[in-house]
Amino acid sequence: MKKSTRAVRGYVLLEALVALLIFSLGLLGMIGFQAASTRIASDSRFRTEAAMLVDELISKMSVDQRSTVAAKYAYDSVSGVKGSASDAWFTDRVVGASKLPNATAKVDIGNGWALDTLTVTVTLTWTMPGAVKTGASAKQKEQAEGRYVTSTLLY
Fold first, then answer.
1. Integer Cα distance of 111 and 120 in angstroms
2. What confidence tier does 150 reach under pLDDT thresholds 50, 70, 90?
3. How far apart are CA 57 and CA 103, in angstroms?
4. CB-side neighbour CA atoms (13 Å) of 104
5. CA 37 to CA 28: how far, in whole Å?
6. Contacts of 122 (CB under 8 A, 6+ apart)
7. Which letter, b or e, does each residue of 63-97 get, where b requires 16 or more Cβ atoms within 10 Å of its Cβ?
8. Facing residues of 125 across strands?
9. For 91-127, what is each residue's pLDDT tens digit?
10. What DSSP string runs through 50-79?
11. Helices (DSSP H) in 64-137: which residue ranges?
12. What gap in Å lies between CA 141 and CA 143, rounded to an integer?
């Protein structure tokens, strides 16, 4: 029995459209993976830069006299508490030389567990590129902000 040409017409076109749909979905998936990997690489670069900057400040504190560390290094760029050494570090290194967008810093210094020891907590915060903060939910704001926190004991 011979099939009529009317029943076969359009079958190849339908196969081509389904193949194009599958290819398009795969391509969209690859574009999504590329966007995610770019965001992760950017976040990693900012965190590495923040870690190096914070380590630089802590190493300066560790070689300074313990009696002057609290006065010279206590810092909060948001509230305006500014120790001279931390202010110079924030202005020259974080704002002037780094690529952290809209960076803020906070250096908390407290007494350590023994005589002549200090606990130091340094927090660097920045805005992730392309992040929208106006009208965003709390979770979106948290994802839009990068934060690096480290604590150490100076003795």
1. 9
2. very high
3. 15
4. 13
5. 14
6. 54, 57, 58, 105, 106, 107, 108, 149, 150, 151
7. eeeeeebbebbbbbbeeeebbebbbebbeeebeee
8. 104, 147
9. 999 999 998 999 999 999 998 778 888 999 999 999 9
10. HHHHHHHHHHHHHHS-HHHHHHHH-EETTT
11. 66-73, 84-89
12. 5
- Specify the 3-state DSSP secondary structure of 116: coil
Single-letter code of the amino acid located at 150: T
Instruction: Find all residues with CB under 8 Å of 154, minimum gap 6, and list them.
Output: 58, 61, 62, 66, 69, 112, 117, 118, 119, 120
| Residues 97, 66: Cα–Cα separation, whole Å | 28
Whole-number CA gyration radius for the chain: 27
Q: How far is CA 17 from CA 5, 7, 11, 34, 60, in A?
A: 20, 18, 10, 26, 65
The domain segmentation of the chain, as residue ranges, is: 45-154
Summarize pLDDT for 16-34 with one digit per residue, the tens: 999 999 999 999 999 999 9
Q: Please state, in angstroms and rounded to a whole number, the distance separating the CA atoms of residues 95 and 52.
A: 14
